[in-house]
Amino acid sequence: MTMDGSASSPVLDDLIGSPPEITLRSGSVNDAATSVVAVVLAAGEDGPVFDATARRAGSDLGVELDRLVESESLRGDAGSVLAVPLTGADRSVTRLLVVGVGAGEPRDWRAAGAAVARRAGTSARLAVIAQPAPAGLRAFAEGVALGSYRVSGLLERVGQPGRPANGGIQPDARDEAGSGAPGRDTLNVNEITVDDAGFDAAGPGADAGGGVSTPTGGPLRQVVVVTDLAADPAALAALGAARAVALGVYIARDLVNTPSLVKSPEWLADRAVRIATAAGLTATVLGPQELAEQGFGGLQAVGQGSPRLPRLVRISYEGPAVPATTQGRSAAGHRVLVGKGITFDSGGLSLKPAVSMIGMKTDMSGAAAVLGTMTALPALGVPGRVTGLLCIAENMIGGSAMRPGDVITCWGGTTVEVLNTDAEGRLVLADGLAYAAGELGADVIVDLATLTGAIAVALGRRTAGLFSSDDELAAELAAAADTAGERVWRLPLTEDYRPAIDSPVADLANIGRALNVGGGSITAALFLREFTGKLPWAHLDIAGTARSESDDGEISRGGTGWGVRTLLSWLAAPATAPADASAQTG
Predict the structure, then answer these.
(1) Is the pLDDT of residue 342 over 70?
(2) CATH topology classification for 258-394+421-494+526-571
(3) Annotated catalytic sites, by residue?
(4) Which of the residues 329, 347, 555, 556 could staple to 473 if both were Cys, CB 3.0 to 4.6 A apart?
(5) Which is the CATH superfamily of the domain at 10-149+218-233?
(6) What is the pTM of this model?
(7) Using CA atoms, how far apart are residues 237 and 243, in angstroms rounded to an integer?
(8) What are phi and psi of 248, to 5 degrees?
(9) CATH 3.40.630.10 in the chain, residue ranges
(10) pLDDT tens digits for 491-516?
């Protein structure tokens, strides 16, 4: 069985880049029909060790694996790779990869999968001789898929023209619905000049921090895992789950990496509906008129400086009944995910410095992660009811842009004094959170947002900030992140800082004003809490983790898709994590 299994929709695959196909097969390395073969090396207590299948493969290839360990000082560290050229005119296998799997924990297999995908070179097909347990196989398959992601051909995948190899600009091309279709922005798509390698007209590296990934070979399209588990139902299910997760991450990465010239709020809302519908979900869009009529003052205010007006996308999933034995916030009646979707953030009239704008096409990473998560729920059979809200706007300057000093009214009636128009993400989230708590009848709310630069200063680029009003929910999310291979660190909602967002003319100010307390990420989280209706709520500040300036393991340069794996791990959790107020992973 392939990694596609029942977890894939052909229509969904047609909308995004697809992960490699992964196949389980029994037999020997001679049946793999590929020029590149990988064997795994574990870091045992008494030194590195190959299992019996690896030794048989080495013997078939004429390679003394134990001598390699000695001559190359191999230790079997997770994600380490040694490439061994194999010579001889009669050889079908020309390269052997020795891949470390550490102690064999799922995180080690995930690192091994990503490493082998990046080291497969120009081979489109790879054979791996391995005997992981189903949990390790799933992690390995996720690592292979995520490490194989390339932004090359992105514009073609999102229905826009790229630049052909000769450097000429292609003739006019339109999305499937046509340029005049309802719900479509008028864009001069002919001005897009992204070549087949994914670089813009300024050349490689011009989009530092914003999201172009240099292809390093391949693309890797098929991986054959030669294993004794080829017919094991648990192994086959693990591959199906891995593909569902990988597709969710691919969706998020593709959308985050799409240039903002293409990615208007209307375009993103339309794309989200198409992807969600293809995955078997129900999706609706509130346009500018509906937002005005229903009182979404935060989205309106943030988006009014742009001619490309805001949208709110609501995606609904109804899964099978939650087992009676399952307890905890992950099994609550109605879980709502809210994502910040700023398609480009200039800072508004509180204009960002030029260098700070370069990566701002990625400021909708929270919404992209929510969409990617929602699309995987049917394939994973997640129980219960889940709703995703994508709060989408473009924060631009203009004659109609909101001003510092304006007072706006968010959904539900809370008034906010805008002191800095670059603190716009919390305004669109305020609408989404209040709507989830008030109109949708949420039982639990989790939001994701590239909200504050302060979080990257505090935690760096590989750990997200976690804030929560509920210890049990925080513990569950921390455990889910650890299982999924993403990292979070819980930070406090310091009550002494709450007066900092008081305002003399409104219910709240959108940045700290009354006290010079610092703690920008904390005061932003305290602001969001005001709109959650005192429900169990968690906020994930992903401003550091949503973007990467380099490939690193399963993380890709540009948009990382951070949060999809954590949310899916949380939503699909079979049981509650221990309620621990100090729950942290790092």
Answers:
(1) yes
(2) Aminopeptidase (3.40.630)
(3) 352, 426
(4) 329
(5) Leucine Aminopeptidase, subunit E, domain 1 (3.40.220.10)
(6) 0.88
(7) 10
(8) -60, -45
(9) 258-394+421-494+526-571
(10) 999 999 999 999 999 999 999 876 67
